[in-house]
What we know:
The structure holds two protein chains of two kinds. Chain A is an alpha/beta fold. Chain A is 41% helix and 18% strand. Chain A has helices at residues 40-59, 62-78, 80-85, 90-104, 110-114, 145-157, 172-183, 199-208, 223-233, 257-260, and strands spanning 27-30, 33-36, 116-117, 124-132, 135-139, 162-166, 192-195, 214-216, 239-241, 263-271. Chain A has a five-stranded parallel sheet, with helices on both faces. Chain A has a three-stranded antiparallel sheet with strand order 3-4-10. Chain B has two domains: 20-258 and 457-474, Aldehyde Dehydrogenase, Chain A, domain 1, CATH 3.40.605; 263-442, Aldehyde Dehydrogenase, Chain A, domain 2 (3-Layer(aba) Sandwich). Chain B is built from 14 helices and 18 strands. β10 (263-271) of chain A pairs parallel with β17 of chain B, so a sheet runs across the interface. Chain A: GO terms for molecular function: oxidoreductase activity.
Amino acid sequence: MSERVAVRKTYKLFIGGKFPRSESGRSYLVQSANVSLASRKDARDAVVAARAAVKGWSGATAYNRGQILYRVAEMLEGRREQFVALGVPGDEVDAATDRWVWYAGWSDKLPQVYGGANPVAGPYFNLSAPEPTGVVAVVAPEAPALLGLVSVIAPAIVTGNTVVVAASPAAPLAAVTLAEVLATSDLPGGVVNLLTGRIGETVPTLAAHLDVNAIDLAGVTDADLAADLEVRAAENLKRVLRPVPADHDWTADPGVGRMTALLETKTVWHPKGV
Amino acid sequence: MIFEYAPAPESRSVVDLKPSYGLFVNGSFVDPADGGSFTSVNPATEEVLAEVAEAGPQDVERAVEAARTAYQKVWGPMPGRDRAKYLYRIARIIQERSRELAVLESLDNGKPIKESRDVDLPLVAAHFFYYAGWADKLPHAGFGADPQPLGVAAQVIPWNFPLLMLAWKIAPALAAGNTVVLKPAETTPLTALLFAEICQQADLPAGVVNIVTGAGETGRALVEHPGVDKVAFTGSTEVGKAIARSVAGTRKKLTLELGGKAANIVFDDAPIDQAVEGIVNGIFFNQGHVCCAGSRLLVQESVAEQVLASLKRRMAQLRVGDPLDKNTDVGAINSAAQLARIRELSDVGAAEGAQRWSPPCELPERGFWFAPTIFTGVTQAHRIAREEIFGPVLSVLTFRTPAEAVEKANNTPYGLSAGIWTDKGSRILWLADRLRAGVVWANTFNKFDPTSPFGGYKESGYGREGGRHGLEAYLNV
């Protein structure tokens, strides 16, 4: 009896609900695997996919988005061992799962907490409501590979944004595996798009892209690069979330800040009368 | 029987203008370090109103330092309850001196007294009164149990609503516990300087509010000063982008309220007379010097002729002239430079093939004037449909279906405001959901209130002013 030869997994990008290789045909060796080395073109393709998904995802009911995020938690729970095998501590997988559950519940509550009627001094109905800003580029924290990633994706998408995420270059396997979770959670294709490879190669393209509405620099550790990305983002006045300090405790209560920073407030007026 | 027109001029005797003004730093008026100055003129007559100090980098330095000290020693540690009382005091003094402020605003800006008296000033007082009440209630504002101020706020404001923009900036900043250095626009500094006197009259502690006058260079020195923690700017998208670049990589929190090219959408079931009033208000209010002006009229094809005929009839009734005449509807263009810009873009509109129309109207010989103007036959490619003119110039486009109206309305890099005119409620809500704009006025236009958040999507900027949302810009959340 010879020992069974294992079937290895190819770690690819996640764009528009599909798992393509980099159009550049390149990969890099990390965590003992060949992982796609995304190109600037891949970044642009990911933005196209993310933009295409905005209408459906932002137009979905809050209840529906909440259920889908909860479904992500269900899928992640079931794959706990797979992440542990990749070196993610079990506690971190649990925390990441719980984070999806936490954010899932926000979908139909944030508009009430963050919007509402305004008592204007006149005979007018006046209501403010939050809306997603659109396509968000996200640089995932270098660590923790899974919890950090979930903690930046979930707050962006729960309100109806779509994202293009640059995974931690040093630990992309958990990210690609999370993409497989997302692909089986009824999340529409294009809502989350994942790029693996070098931050310095893809993220400047995203920061300068005129069809990206916001950029979350959470995982950028190089201060000069962060400043450069912010300068690029100014071209179309992207909403910018600045880098998160390296000593940030990702297990702490995240608060609503990461959600509200990626929202627009729309206020509608109408006269009252007969 | 024909009646002769009888003007009803407001007296300017209520305003006591000094020949020259210093900078307001640390509670007193001081001379600028290098002695530079410029003049502010009445745009309706080109008469020089006063000489105003021009702040250089040293003056900005002094002002930021004063604000820092006041933040650390007085305003930061002060209980919210007491900050509230100072803001209430300011609101009351503004109400008490409102006629003086309104007349001065009209003199310096060129806007009709009817508007400065009935719109700007009531809103200014209301804004201070509203935010005063927040000062001791911040833990209840929804930003956590103990939200903290940022420190020193650098604020740069435009010339279109000089005192109102000052109120939008200073009231929430102070309520949240910050101190400020504010730069008014170089063509309209006078009401800000009168406001400085009001701060003195209110016994506001020295250094909490500092006013540095000057042009673009002064503004740049202020927002780029390493000692400021917060930058708030209202003005052009071009300058807004430059500021966004300049704060990159710093700790400074930034909010921007920038340009717009709002669509005012009129459906065939709209009450035409009301819609026409809304169109006129949307574009000719404040001479069209309004970032949220309804500068693109999108009218449904089936009623386009009727709406245009009615609009032209109404425009012929607009009284253009002396801002201090209580009958005046459209005042003076704020500056020669702005007039040149409006003329240039209007000429481009005609050159690109749109049809230009203005009612017969006599413009005064001196001063900066532009007759209310509409362009028909405008396409989405025309520059007058894409660029902010910031003047009394309306571009008229048509549409057939609601979906086409959405497409055209959103076809702009801006996203500040929009208008909808229809009798059908479900259509209003359907459309409001789809318009990428921060403020949507349905069957009304250009309404403002301190409780109502204002601000843009896309390249119209970020952050909101007004309401609970407006506090966020000045808190560490």
